[in-house]
Specification:
It is found in: Cell membrane. This is Elongation factor 4. Keywords: Cell membrane, GTP-binding, Hydrolase, Membrane, Nucleotide-binding, Protein biosynthesis. This protein is of the alpha+beta class and about 600 residues long. Helix content is about 25%, strand content about 35%. The protein is built from 13 helices and 33 strands. The strands form seven sheets. It has an eight-stranded antiparallel beta sheet with strand order 11-10-16-7-8-15-12-13, covered by helices on one side. Helix 3 packs parallel to helix 4 and helix 7 crosses helix 8. The longest helix is centred in the C-terminal third of the chain and has 18 residues. The protein is globular. It starts with 5 loop residues before the first strand and ends in a 6-residue tail after the last helix. Bound molecules: guanosine-5'-triphosphate.
Length: about 600
């Protein structure tokens, strides 16, 4: 029967352990794409993904495999991103699967996101097929990695597939194991339609294209479907599968993973995680869905030209169609005008959104420094959530401020435990516990304010451990903190978009660092500009941007043309992202300087 030959699975791994390369080899070996069409990491179709070599959006593809038992199988492979910012996307794809291929690098071993992804897979009751990849590397030590998988995950790894995605070794064995180890879906064809939406993309011709996993029943063009959470109804116009190009079908049935269009014009009506059913024969129970994405950091986003505000809103709406984790709402800044406060999963996510807005929608943006959301309790007992530092109430009105903390798991070789603890302590972390993974590696657990993680924790962690540490974190709640808002004044005026929140103990040092930094990034103007940092009315640091000389190159003797050109180039590049703030031209960099004070 049809369903017994379907296998729905994801590939999960720590970043760079080789998921995408394994997916490429699988596509090749199953002739899903011809050699001619094959290009590296074909599933990473977004231009940005290919340039950065990372997977951002999950992608699903149907492939056919002729197994050694003589039968033909249909695989639905759902690729997932590995970066901690995108673990939400991982959980969405896992909910559409019966199994997960767990890829572990034979030289690196189990890393923080290996564990995090395994837990997500186990939460979804998935069958896990372990693969030890990159066994071609000289530093590969598959036996050690097997033991590590057993010790840390408790998964029998003695018969893990040994693979080299680079050479193709072990890929066929992996395909066989997918057939034998991962269960077929158990949907009921006769039951009313029950389909889970696990992704959506906006297409200007067809409207919203939904990625769906059919749990029960059948869906075909012409059917009237209903979105269970809001009762909206649509007539199905097309169903099909990605192979990896879209191929339309006359129906999708229980166990299938494919796409569906129904002239849906706004994706807000079809949330990822929602259940579709038939309007005239609805199922009684929606699919369990999965945990919704919650933004961790917020930043203000403003068009460089005020006239582009509507374009920016439209672009954000478009992006939100295929990025359920992106949140935004209008905000106004005295300094920057009309813009949006946007919520992101993390800094990488923020970066990716900014870059997509600029490339795909041709917008020039000013982003303010990212902030977490703070919970304040006012003297009168009211509670207020503050995601924009500029909105922080006056200190005299505040009874208590709480900030989000994360539980951070840091995996690191023994030798670096010292530096990791020193760093975590310095970032206001509270030590929780430390587990030995094996003779050489330790899992160090701290509770650390999210704001410290957002700033530069990861970079510092990497440099303090020569790149050996890996990090995973999740929100663990809000804790009271002695926090203050620092305002920045340029030429005597508070620039609201530069305000930031910091622990009182660090206020002085950060105030000083930022006034120095701003002095170096804001170009000289025709007049002298004082830069001040203040808490309330109290100035805690200051610097001065000197008045500018008409032509930066005037001082140079005429002969050195290349040097002169270089300087002019530099001036031009500096001009690119300027925003007029009062009488000053302030570059994008200035708004991010709070991040880069070191
Ligand atoms: P993200 O998509 O960013 O999460 O990473 P990924 O896990 O998909 O890793 P990817 O497939 O992009 O591989 C990471 C790097 O490892 C690339 O440079 C690959 O060429 C390399 N790589 C993958 N598999 C192998 C292998 O079997 N052997 C060797 N030597 N290198 C490999």
């Amino acid at each position: 029967d049809y369903q017994s030959r379907i296998r729905n699975f994801s590939i999960v791994a720590h970043i760079d352990h080789g998921k995408s390369t394994i997916a490429d080899r699988i596509l090749e070996l199953t002739d899903t794409v011809s050699k001619r069409e094959m290009h590296a990491q074909i599933l990473d179709s977004m231009e940005l993904e290919r340039e950065r070599g990372i997977t951002i959006k999950l992608n699903s593809v149907e492939l056919k495999y002729h197994a050694k038992d003589g039968k033909d199988y249909i695989f639905h492979l759902i690729d997932t991103p590995g970066h901690v910012d995108f673990s939400y996307e991982v959980s969405r794809s896992l909910a559409a699967c019966e199994g997960a291929v767990l890829v572990v690098d034979a030289a690196q071993g189990v890393e923080a996101q290996t564990l995090a992804n395994v837990y997500l897979a186990l939460d979804n009751d998935l069958e896990i097929v372990p693969v030890i990849n990159k066994i071609d590397l000289p530093a590969a030590d598959p036996d050690r990695v097997k033991d590590e998988i057993e010790d840390t995950i408790g998964l029998d790894a003695q018969d893990a597939v040994l693979a080299s995605a680079k050479s193709g070794l072990g890929i066929e064995e992996l395909l066989e194991r997918i057939v034998t180890d991962i269960p077929a879906p158990q949907g009921d064809f006769e039951a009313p339609l029950k389909a889970m939406i696990f992704d959506s993309v906006y297409d200007s011709y067809r409207g919203v294209v939904l990625s769906v996993r059919i749990d029960d029943g059948i869906v075909k063009p012409g059917d009237m479907i209903e979105v269970m959470s809001n009762g909206k109804k649509y007539e199905v116009t097309e169903v099909g599968v990605l192979s990896p190009k879209a191929v339309s079908r006359d129906r999708l049935v229980a166990g299938d993973v494919g796409y569906l269009t129904a002239n849906i014009k706004t994706v807000r009506d079809t949330h990822v995680g929602d259940t579709l059913t038939l309007a005239n024969n609805p199922t009684t129970k929606p699919t369990p869905g999965y945990r919704p994405a919650k933004p961790m950091v917020y930043s203000g986003m403003y068009p460089v030209e005020n006239a582009k505000y509507d374009d920016l809103r439209e672009a954000l709406e478009r992006l939100q169609l295929n990025d359920a984790a992106l949140e935004f709402e209008p905000e106004t800044s005295q300094a920057l005008g009309f813009g949006f406060r946007c919520g992101f999963l993390g800094l990488l996510h923020m970066d990716v959104i900014q870059e997509r807005l600029e490339r795909e929608f041709d917008l020039e943006l000013i982003m303010t420094a990212p902030s977490v959301d703070y919970h304040t309790t006012l003297q009168n007992g009211d509670e207020k959530t503050v995601a924009n530092p500029a909105d922080m109430p006056d200190p005299s009105d505040i009874r208590e401020i709480q900030e989000p903390y994360v539980k951070a798991e840091i995996m690191v070789p023994n030798d670096y435990v010292g530096p990791v603890m020193e760093l975590s302590q310095r970032k206001r972390g509270n030590f929780v516990t430390m587990d030995y993974l094996d003779a050489n590696r330790v899992n160090v657990i701290y509770e650390i304010p999210l704001s410290e993680i957002v700033f530069d924790f990861f970079d510092e962690l990497k440099s303090n451990t020569r790149g050996y540490a890996s990090l995973d974190y999740e929100l663990c709640g809000y804790r009271p903190s002695d926090l203050v808002k620092i305002d920045i004044l340029l030429a005597g005026e508070v620039v609201d978009a530069l305000s930031f929140i910091v622990h009182r103990d660090f206020a002085q040092a950060r105030g000083r660092a930022i006034t120095e930094k701003l002095k170096s990034v804001i170009p000289r103007q025709q007049f002298e500009v004082p830069v001040q940092a203040s808490i309330g009315n109290k100035v805690i640091a200051r610097s001065t941007i000197k008045a500018y000389r008409k032509d930066v190159t005037a001082k140079l003797y005429g002969g050195d043309v290349t040097r002169r050109m270089k300087l002019l180039e530099k001036q031009k590049a500096g001009k690119k992202r300027m925003k007029a703030v009062g009488k000053l031209d302030v570059p994008q960099e200035a708004f991010m300087s709070v991040l880069k004070m070191g």
